């Protein structure tokens, strides 16, 4: 399995690079503080980018690309650390007074929910405090929509999260990837890489996605309501 951007590959039984070891130690200390220290209600959030860890450049893993952009915007792009408890890459960041847990599952899409639910448990988060970022077939590339809970709408990663969290209340940022004309082409389209023309649109799309989710978290951090 390949590592995501900014995450050095580590073979089983081999020694970790010194920088990764220090990063892991810092994350573990930060996690301990987050788990053990009291916090104001609603001031900690998790953002999970759904996808397949071995296919980071595909349409189905565009949620992970959004997480990479979020990490860059928040200044933690070099802080990703592989966490064995969650089976995920984690990075911790601050957004004003709020604490953000960024998560990229290292399980296949159909089992993403196991990583998300474990992290939510460790950080003491409710389903309403967990954002999911994922691809959306029924929206063209470049279209974004923030959905506040509801059904999985056929998305296996979202279905896994609903099952593992035992809730469908998670806010979701849906990133359009477009639906092919023929139904038999859907699987190849979803698991395929973005075309050169689509790749030209990605930087602006990822920026807009980061803006949308950060603005929503800022708004929610200032008050108790789950407003759009």
TrEMBL record:
Species of provenance: Sapajus apella (Brown-capped capuchin)
PANTHER family: PEPTIDYL-TRNA HYDROLASE
NADP in keyword set: no
EC identifiers of the protein: 3.1.1.29
Domain of life where this protein originates: Eukaryota
Record's catalysed reaction(s): an N-acyl-L-alpha-aminoacyl-tRNA + H2O = an N-acyl-L-amino acid + a tRNA + H(+)
Gene3D superfamilies assigned to the protein according to its UniProt record, in alphabetical order: Peptidyl-tRNA hydrolase
Protein name: peptidyl-tRNA hydrolase
Lineage: Eukaryota, Metazoa, Chordata, Craniata, Vertebrata
Biological function: Peptidyl-tRNA hydrolase that cleaves nascent chains-tRNAs that are not stably fixed in the P-site of 60S ribosome-nascent chain complexes. Acts downstream of the ribosome-associated quality control (RQC) pathway to release non-ubiquitinated nascent chains from 60S and 80S ribosome-nascent chain complexes. Does not act on ubiquitinated nascent chains, which are cleaved by ANKZF1 for degradation.
GO molecular function: peptidyl-tRNA hydrolase activity; tRNA binding
InterPro entries the record matches: Pept_tRNA_hydro (IPR001328), Pept_tRNA_hydro_CS (IPR018171), Pept_tRNA_hydro_sf (IPR036416)
Family membership noted in the UniProt record: Belongs to the PTH family.
Record-linked Pfam families: Pept_tRNA_hydro (PF01195)
Keywords, sorted A to Z: Hydrolase, RNA-binding, tRNA-binding
CDD domains, alphabetized: PTH
């Amino acid at each position: 399995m390949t590592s995501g951007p900014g995450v050095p590959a580590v073979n089983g039984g081999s020694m970790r690079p010194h920088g990764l070891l220090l990063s892991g130690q810092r994350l573990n200390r930060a996690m301990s503080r987050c788990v053990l220290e009291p916090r104001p209600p609603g001031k900690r959030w998790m953002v999970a980018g759904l996808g397949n860890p071995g296919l980071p450049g595909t349409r189905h893993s565009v949620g992970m690309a959004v997480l990479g952009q979020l990490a860059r915007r928040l200044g933690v792009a070099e802080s990703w650390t592989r966490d064995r408890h969650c089976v995920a890459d984690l990075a911790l960041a601050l957004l004003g007074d709020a604490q953000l847990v960024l998560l990229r599952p290292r399980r296949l899409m159909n089992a993403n929910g196991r990583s998300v639910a474990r992290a939510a448990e460790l950080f003491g988060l409710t389903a309403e405090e967990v954002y999911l970022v994922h691809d959306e077939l029924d929206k063209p590339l470049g279209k974004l929509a923030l959905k506040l809970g509801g059904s999985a709408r056929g998305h296996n990663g979202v279905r896994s999260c609903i099952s593992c969290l035992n809730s469908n209340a998670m806010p979701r940022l849906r990133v359009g990837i477009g639906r092919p004309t023929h139904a038999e082409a859907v699987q190849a389209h979803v698991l395929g890489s973005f075309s050169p023309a689509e790749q030209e649109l990605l930087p602006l799309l990822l920026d807009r996605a980061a803006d949308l989710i950060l603005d929503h978290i800022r708004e929610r951090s200032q008050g108790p309501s789950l407003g759009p």
